[in-house]
């Protein structure tokens, strides 16, 4: 009897302990903190903060929140993000390339490290364990920081690891870059700070630049000379400084009159940098100024190999199919260089170094001898030869570009499986099916007609009794065949 009582109390004690542990975890995970938190204070999964829309930390004013958010294309997968609350704009992401489930855990551990796990695998971390982190704070400017013991020294900050957005006061410095979300063609764009210049690149196998601060005539020069060392958004302009913080130039993206707002720069999946005022609704309130300016100035304004003309109008080449390319120029297919339309240009050419300086024949020979070369441009007056291993849309300027262009295509005139021939193949298949069905219907009608004729009864003698039963020509099979043949 005593043994049974002791077993009962053991079971009850274990259950109470489990309930207490569960409650502790729920309490630890379910609270939304404000401003600053301390090592060991946060551990939980998205499901712990469902009633807080997945957000476990808010800035002091509540302007920004930090926590979980669903991905754009799958509500069962989650990112850890910083969000501007009023506009519901995502401004920073920790695990952009590796979404997690609602049971995967985020932790600010007792050693000062911030970790995001997917199952048992670490998918993102600040790598600050043992570096003297005393607190984590989401500041009112949208910057997530890990502070040292003096509460002022920044050991780690999200401003140093931007995704596709720059915020006011965020320094963009040498070695940093923004990366866009993928385009419909799965191409990403990047804004990079290298060698004293800020440039935009298309993420082909060999990245292709298509804009730089030095090429934009809208830049207002404040002081000539000097090498740009950092850029920052301030007072409705994008400002560029040297390493001594001397103000060199600026790009004004909106009228300076009126309230300043909270203007951010976003690199979109279309390759354009657009400026938005978060306080006025984020992406619903873009400035008219974009980078780059004008039409046809990004590699994917139109589909690859298409020709972009004024106001971003897209046309197929007149001498080639719309998509003459193929899967690989290094395949076993027989290939040839086909001349492109006259006067074409390509947005990256003004930023690329020429492959060589030669004549047209030499440039053609270089492209033919390089299996990775998909297209070549030769500048007639300078002799500059450009070889490209990827190609976006061509430009058709109002004045002759001075370039002669050639594109590699297969010698049999057929493109890739996803090229312009795909539509023709579909039409051919449909035509063949229609012909076969028509022949089958005609054959059926002939068969039934011949059968009716052969089985037609002889004309009876005068006065003879005629059968009133239905003939084969009135049968269901015959009537169905007639219906199949359609109206006459």
TrEMBL record:
Apple domain location: 330-411
Residue ranges constituting the Bulb-type lectin domain according to the UniProt record: 42-159
Gene Ontology molecular function: any one: carbohydrate binding
Pfam families membership: B_lectin
Entries under SUPFAM superfamilies matching the protein: alpha-D-mannose-specific plant lectins, WD40 repeat-like
Signal peptide range in chain numbering: 1-29
Keyword Cell cycle appears in the UniProt entry: no
Keyword Lipid biosynthesis: no
Domain of life: Eukaryota
Protein name: Bulb-type lectin domain-containing protein
């Amino acid at each position: 009897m005593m043994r049974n009582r002791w077993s009962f109390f053991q079971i009850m004690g274990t259950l109470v302990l489990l309930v207490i542990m569960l409650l502790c975890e729920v309490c630890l995970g379910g609270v939304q903190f404000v401003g600053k938190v301390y090592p060991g204070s946060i551990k939980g999964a998205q499901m712990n903060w469902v009633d807080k829309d997945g957000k476990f930390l808010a800035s002091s004013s509540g302007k920004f929140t930090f926590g979980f958010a669903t991905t754009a294309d799958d509500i069962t997968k989650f990112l850890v993000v910083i969000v501007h609350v009023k506009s519901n704009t995502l401004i920073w992401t920790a695990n952009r390339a590796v979404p997690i489930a609602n049971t995967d855990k985020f932790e600010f551990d007792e050693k000062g490290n911030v970790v995001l796990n997917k199952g048992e695998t670490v998918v993102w971390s600040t790598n600050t364990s043992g570096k003297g982190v005393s607190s984590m704070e989401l500041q009112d400017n949208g910057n997530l920081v890990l502070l040292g013991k003096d509460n002022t020294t920044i050991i780690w900050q999200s401003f140093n690891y931007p995704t596709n957005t720059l915020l006011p006061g965020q320094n963009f410095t040498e070695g940093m870059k923004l990366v866009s979300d993928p385009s419909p063609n799965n191409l990403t764009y990047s804004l990079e700070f290298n060698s004293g210049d800020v440039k935009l690149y298309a993420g082909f196998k060999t990245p292709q630049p298509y804009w730089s601060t030095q090429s934009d005539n809208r830049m207002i020069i404040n002081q000539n000379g000097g090498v740009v060392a950092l850029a920052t958004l301030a007072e409705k302009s994008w400002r560029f400084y040297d390493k001594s913080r001397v103000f060199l130039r600026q790009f004004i993206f909106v009228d300076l009159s009126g309230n300043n707002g909270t203007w951010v720069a976003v690199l979109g999946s279309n390759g354009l940098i657009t400026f938005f005022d978060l306080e006025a609704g984020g992406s619903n309130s873009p400035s008219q100024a974009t980078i780059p300016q004008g039409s046809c100035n990004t590699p994917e304004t139109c589909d690859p190999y298409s020709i972009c003309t004024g106001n971003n109008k897209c046309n197929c080449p007149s001498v080639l199919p719309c998509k003459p390319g193929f899967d690989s120029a290094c395949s076993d297919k027989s290939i040839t260089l086909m001349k492109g339309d006259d006067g074409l240009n390509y947005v990256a050419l003004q930023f690329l170094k020429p492959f060589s300086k030669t004549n047209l024949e030499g440039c053609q020979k270089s492209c033919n001898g390089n299996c990775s070369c998909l297209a070549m441009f030769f500048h007639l007056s300078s002799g500059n030869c450009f070889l490209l291993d990827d190609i976006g849309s061509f430009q058709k300027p109002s004045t002759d570009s001075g370039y002669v262009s050639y594109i590699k295509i297969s010698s049999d005139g057929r493109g890739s499986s996803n090229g312009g021939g795909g539509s023709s193949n579909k039409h051919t298949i449909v035509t063949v099916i229609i012909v076969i069905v028509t022949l089958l219907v005609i054959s059926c009608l002939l068969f039934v007609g011949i059968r009716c004729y052969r089985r037609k009864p002889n004309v009876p003698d005068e006065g003879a009794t005629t059968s009133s039963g239905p003939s084969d020509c009135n049968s269901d099979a015959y009537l169905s065949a007639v219906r199949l043949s359609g109206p006459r």
